[in-house]
Amino acid sequence: MTSEMATIVFLIIANSILLAVSLLGTILNIYLFYKFSTRRGIVSGFYKLCLVKTVPNATVCASFLFWAVPLGSLRIKNDQVSRNINVFVGQLAGSGAYIFGPLLHVCMAANRFSSLYFAVRIMKVARYPITFLSIIVTLIIALVYTVMGFPENCGYLYLPETLEWVSEDAPCAVFQCSSTSFNAVDIFNILYISDILYISDDSKLQLTLQDRHGKND
Q1: What CA–CA distance (Å, rounded) separates 128 from 137?
Q2: Contact assessment for residue 45 and residue 130, using Cβ atoms and an 8 Å cutoff
Q3: Using one digit for the tens of pLDDT, what is the confidence trace for 83-126?
Q4: Considering its fold, how many domains does the chain have in total?
Q5: What pTM value is reported for the model?
Q6: How far are the Cα atoms of 11, 76, 183 from residue 17, in angstroms, in the given order?
């Protein structure tokens, strides 16, 4: 097999996998958004967070489905791709949604943790729009990271020839890349903390169930 043939086979397999995963993810998250948003009646803060969480999930999946996969499948050359559209998609999915999703995940974990361990206090502050404010703060942070790459030579670009996202070479792009890399470590730590909170929630529920079974016996 020649080098060119191997490259073509690799691109076909890689784009097929990207197509399958991104299509499934886009459809699933759009469906969940529809189901969450059309429910009637009063909903909890956790429910609202689940609704909003589908937005960054769908954004990332759609960026591959409608941008990365078509460019890669058609074997478009890097220099033939519109810089403005490329940066818009790259910043929206690779920066904004990249930050927005994990931050919402932390809010969800904190919501469950506080509801189980501080239920009485939560009832006292329930009249305040804590969930709404949390969503607004995380959204603002995501928007800042999104618009950070819009100036000339400051954004993320998708290279269809190599199937990779890269940063441009201006100082602002280097700053954004290093900032995002730094936040990648933060996000890992945040997700680790979120997992600990979820484990604590599970332990709390298990103890509660054991106490109830003990009383029934």
Answers
A1: 15
A2: yes
A3: 999 999 999 998 889 889 888 988 887 887 777 666 656 655 56
A4: 1
A5: 0.77
A6: 10, 18, 28
Distances (CA, A) of 184 to 30, 96, 103, 201: 26, 13, 12, 25
* Banded model confidence at residue 182, pLDDT cuts 50, 70, 90: very low
Residue 70's domain comprises: 3-216
8 Cα distance to chain centroid: 30
Tokens linked to 157: 């670009």
> How far apart are alpha carbons 17 and 145 in whole angstroms?
28
What is the dihedral sign for C-alpha 52, 43, 39, 132? negative
DSSP 85: H
Q: Output the domain CATH number for residue 73.
A: 1.20.1070.10
